[in-house]
Amino acid sequence: MNDPFVELVELSATNMRIGVILVRDFDDYAEKQFAPFVDSLTAMGCQSQNIVIRRVPTLHDVIIMLQFFAQYTDVDGVVVLAPENRVMGVLSLMNGIVHVQTHWNMVVSIGGAERAEDVVTMITIQNEMEAEASEMVAQENFS
Predict the structure, then answer these.
(1) 70-108 per-position pLDDT tens digit
(2) What does the alpha-carbon distance between residue 54 and residue 12 come to, in Å, rounded to a whole number?
(3) What is the spatial distance between Cα 24 and Cα 118, in angstroms, rounded to a whole number?
(4) Sign of dihedral through CA atoms 87, 91, 96, 97?
(5) Is 123 exposed, middle or buried (0-12, 13-18, 19+ CB in 10 A)?
(6) How many Cα neighbours within 13 Å face the side chain of 84?
(7) Phi, then psi, of 78 in degrees rounded to 5
(8) What is the mean pLDDT of the chain?
(9) CB under 8 Å to 40, separation ≥6 — which residues?
(10) Most buried residue, 21, 51, 60, 84, by CB count within 10 Å?
(11) What is the DSSP letter of 143?
C-alpha cells in the first residue's frame, strides 16, 4: 500500500516544460523572484529552453494567458510569478484559474521562487498518477 506521507527525496524537472506568467503590475516582485525561480528550476534539471515566459499587462490578463498556455503550448504546468496574497484576493481571478486547472488538467501555482519546487512536485505527482492509471487500464483489458 502506498504511504500518503512519503515525500519525494529528489525532484527532477528534466523533461518538464514550465510556463511562467509575469504580470507588469508586479514588475518589482518579478524582478526579485525571477532569477531565483529560474535557478531553482535549472537546478532540478529543467533546461532553460523549456521555461516559456510570457508577460501580461494586468492581473486580470492572467486567465487568458493560462488559457493560451493550455491551448497553444505543451507546457506541463504554469507559475504565475506574482504575490500569492494579491492573486488569491481576487475571487473572479481565482475562479478562472481553478477553471483552467480543472478543464485542462494543468498544474498552476502562484507566488515567487518558492513555487519552482511546488510546480515540479505537482507535475511529478500528476505524471506518476497518469502512468499508474494507464497501467490499471492495461491490466483491466487483459483480465
Answers:
(1) 999 999 999 999 999 999 999 999 999 999 999 999 999
(2) 23
(3) 23
(4) positive
(5) buried
(6) 9
(7) -135, 140
(8) 90
(9) 113, 116, 117
(10) 21
(11) -
